[in-house]
Design a protein that fits this description.
Elements: E1 2-4, H1 6-13, H2 17-24, H3 28-35, H4 44-54, H5 58-61, E2 62-64
Antiparallel strand pairs: 1-2
Helix pairs in contact: 2-3
Length: 76
């Protein structure tokens, strides 16, 4: 699965969710969905705007994590 580490980059750049949402042109609610890994997709134009405002690369905020199979423990 793809994990969005947007909050980490926002903290590094010292920018609030409200300020970022305004600068990239999306609603704070939609930014929250992205930050909380609830989004099913992201537009490249949104990703580009995030990277421009935060001065980062897509790989700085998107991470692939292998999903655990059902029955596996969380601390394995």
């Amino acid at each position: 699965m793809i994990v969005v580490n947007l909050d980490v980059m926002m903290a590094k750049r010292k920018i609030s969710a409200g300020e970022l949402a305004e600068k990239i042109g999306i609603t704070p609610a939609n930014l929250s969905i992205l930050k909380n890994n609830k989004a099913k997709a992201i537009r490249f134009s949104t990703l580009e705007a995030i990277c421009r405002v935060l001065d980062c690369q897509p790989g700085d905020i998107l991470e692939y994590v292998e999903e655990k199979e059902e029955g596996e423990g969380k601390d394995e």
